[in-house]
Amino acid sequence: MNVELIGLTKRYGATLAVDAIDLKIPSGAYCCLLGPSGCGKTTTLRMIGGHEAVSAGEVVIGPRAVGDAPPAERGTAMMFQSYALFPHLTCRDNVAFSLRMRGVAKAERRAKADAMLDLVQMGHLADRLPAQLSGGQQQRVALARALVTGPKVLLLDEPLSALDPFLRVRMRVELKRIQAELGLTFIHVTHSQEEAMALSDLVVVMNGGKIEQAGDPRTVFERPASAFVARFIGGHNVIALPEGKVAVRADRMRLGAEAGDGAVQARVLAVEYQGASVQVALEADGMTEPGGLSAVVDDATFAGRPLAPGDRVALGWDPAAAHRLDA
Amino acid sequence: MSDVALPALADVPANSVRAEAAPARRRRPLAYLQAAPMALVFLVFLAIPLLLTLMVSFWEYNEYEIIPAFTLQNYRDVFEGCGNLADPCTTARTYLSTLKFCALTLAFTLLIGFPVAYFLAFHVRSRTVQMGLFLLCTIPFWTSNVIRMISWIPLLGRNGLVNDTLQGMGVIGSPIEGLLYSDFSVTLAFVHLYTVFMIVPIFNSMARIDRSLIEAAYDAGATGWQTLWSVIVPLCKPGIAIGTIFVLTLVMGDFVTVGVMGGQQIASVGKVIQVQMSYLQFPAAAANAVVLLAAVLMMILGLTRVIDLRREL
Q1: Model confidence pLDDT, tens digit, residues A266-302
Q2: In a domain, B228, yes or no
Q3: Total-model pTM
Q4: Which are the contacts of A19, defined by CB distance < 8 A and separation ≥ 6?
Q5: What is the CATH number of the domain that holds B151?
Q6: Which residues in chain A touch residue B212, judged by CB atoms under 8 angstroms apart?
Q7: Residue B152 carries which DSSP code?
Q8: What is the DSSP string of A184-206?
Q9: What is the mean pLDDT of residues A192-199?
Q10: Residues of B in contact with A158 (CB under 8 A)
């Protein structure tokens, strides 16, 4: 089901956590709310899910504005950051919990719970208690629990942040698979741009309670709307030129002979080998970009002309790759 | 309950367990040394007196002396005539009376303690207010037990405040007799005293409940009552069990409250022991004490069968 936010606002006393945001999430989309901590992304998610009262504005899910309706009536289900599995219930009972609350007969809710656990490949551990499971397994159970009532919109609050990097990548694939399989709208809060890029059809970059940019990952990466977006999603250099700020992707920076006409002299601060490429941190003369500049060089190219910290090198960029920033 | 010991050992690589075991062995004498002072206190003030009581319970006695000899007569006296269920013996009737107070006190302390703990844990946000309200709960302990009980008399007595007020309002014609020196006043005093022993462990259990569980229940469509019954109460079971143990042991062994509030007319196990002590029948008192101890221990054992307390401690 599609989700629409209209002038959605959350105030805590005098502080504005979410500042009148408007957003349309198409049905069946994987939407990531991306931003640093305190940007209002979790509050937004909680308002969509009915866990936080709305100060002003409206959440529209499918055909109707949901107002103050409780989560179960919205057709949303939430997957909590810490999974929030009931420690006294087995996996099966955890998954069947919402069915039990709705008065579904025991045999039926058991069957449904088992089917859900199979979907997340946890059927064989249905009788375990949450404390007997690893983090990744707990997460699968939490996912099954959120899905068991057949929600139209699944809300995920930093679902992967508690997992180790290896598991995180695997769960990412799993989430995408389940989302595609069930055709649900997923709204996923994260502070990892990598996660947002990998998963979403729609990336919503938030900062200070406002939406900085909403678009598909490629658009956001190719044409960041602001210096904040360019910096936050990474892989970009924000360069202040006399005619305004531009964002240049780190892999479009040119070093040495290829630097071209507008090249400046820069000092190499650090060199990080990353396998397929090498990331070179630089400090350009007369440019004060906080965090410095970086260039990503193909590893073969780098091997032909190695650089070491302290070296001086000409630095330029492909003018076609420079993207004008409005702010 | 997030900090409950997870069975995570299985996931820990075996070599890291072995690596930790070696320093643990070296630390062991130190650990014993650290535990020694408390162990000594328990030995001198708990284990030895208990053993002495056990020993004396097998001794003989007459009107003016106790004789170190082995006899089972004291226990025979305790259970004399207890085979007849139709006409229970004195011991059985005393235990029944005490158990009745246990049940009443438990019921009321739980009925009052659970909501109070719930309010403190879930509705009071600020730590300071929580602490302040906790102190309020301990007010009954700000004065001595005897003074506290005596102060019930002007309130509940035949011409006490309650009777006077009710008569003044014309609700009753003659004073209610059962207010003081009755089962009612004994239960009232117990509940007044021991509710806080129920509140604290239940509050403790509640404070450990991850708030996101409540949200998860709400998200799953549970109503307030459903959340209470399906999530909060099950997770509070250890706290309820600990509170129950407190109340059980305190009421089972009590003789002062039953004596004063019951007008010395109500039997209790503790009272029997106290009377025997005052007549210097130490072996008889010891035998009664051993039986009482066994009874209380069995109750606690029964409780721990139902609820795994080790997870909470």
Answers
A1: 888 888 888 888 888 888 777 666 667 888 888 888 8
A2: yes
A3: 0.79
A4: A9, A40, A208, A209, A210
A5: 1.10.3720.10
A6: 80-82, 84
A7: H
A8: -EEEEEES-HHHHHHH-SEEEEE
A9: 88
A10: none
Weakest mean pLDDT among A66-70, A313-317, B84-88, B133-137 = B84-88
Question: What range defines the domain where residue B191 resides?
Answer: 87-312
> Closest approach of chain B CAs to the CA of A86, in angstroms?
7
Cβ <8 Å between B221 and A101: yes
Does the distance separating the beta carbons of A132 and B230 come in below 8 Å?
A: no
Pick from A49, A102, A134: CB nearest B219: A49
The two tokens of residue B197 are 């022993």
Dihedral (CA of A233, A234, A237, A238) sign: positive
**Positions of E strands within chain A:** 3-12, 15-25, 30-34, 56-61, 64-65, 76-79, 153-157, 185-190, 202-207, 210-215, 236-241, 244-249, 253-255, 264-273, 277-284, 293-298, 312-317, 323-324
Shortest distance between the Cα of B47 and any Cα of chain A, in A, equals 37
* pLDDT tens profile B163-198: 888 888 888 878 788 888 888 999 999 998 899 999
Q: Is A63 helix (H, G, I), strand (E, B) or coil?
A: coil
**Residues in chain B closer than 8 A to A149 (CB atoms):** 220-221
For residue B234, the chain A residue with the least C-alpha distance is A88
Calculate the CA A2 to chain-centre distance: 19
- A180's CB contacts (< 8 A; 6+ apart) are none
B217 domain-assigned: yes
Chain B residue with Cα closest to A86: B213
Q: Quick check: ipTM above 0.85?
A: no
Residue A165: its pLDDT value, please? Answer: 86
Q: Each residue of B60-104: pLDDT tens digit?
A: 888 788 888 888 888 888 888 777 777 778 888 889 999 999 999
- Beta-carbon separation of B218 and A81 below 8 A: no
Q: What is the CA radius of gyration of chain B?
A: 25
- What is the pLDDT, as a whole number, of residue A22? 92
CB contact under 8 A, A134 and B215: no
Query: Under 8 Å CB-to-CB from B268, ≥6 apart: which residues?
Result: B94, B97, B98, B101, B254, B255, B258
What is the phi/psi pair of residue A23, to 5°?
-160, 140
Which residues of chain A neighbour B218 with C-beta distances below 8 Å?
Answer: 51, 70-71
Structure-token match 């090249």, residue found: A263
What are the tens digits of pLDDT across the range B1-60? 334 333 333 343 444 444 445 555 667 888 899 999 999 999 999 999 999 999 999 998
Instruction: Look at residues B291, B269, B285 and name the one whose alpha carbon lies nearest to residue B56.
Output: B285
Q: How many CB atoms lie within 10 A of CB A224?
A: 26
Structural domains of chain B, count: 1
- Does B269 map to a domain? yes
pLDDT, residue A288, reads: 64
Helix (H, G, I), strand (E, B) or coil at B32: helix
Least confident of A119-123, B135-139, B174-178, B198-202: B174-178
Sort out which chain B residues have CB atoms less than 8 A from A88's CB and list them: 234-235
Residue B234 counted as domain residue = yes
Cα angle B242, B246, B247 (rounded to 5 degrees) comes to 115
If interface means Cβ-Cβ distance under 8 Å, which residues of chain A face chain B?
A: 49, 51, 70-72, 77-78, 80-82, 84-88, 97-98, 100-102, 131-132, 134, 145-146, 149
Residue of A78, A81, A131 lying closest to B219 (CB–CB): A78
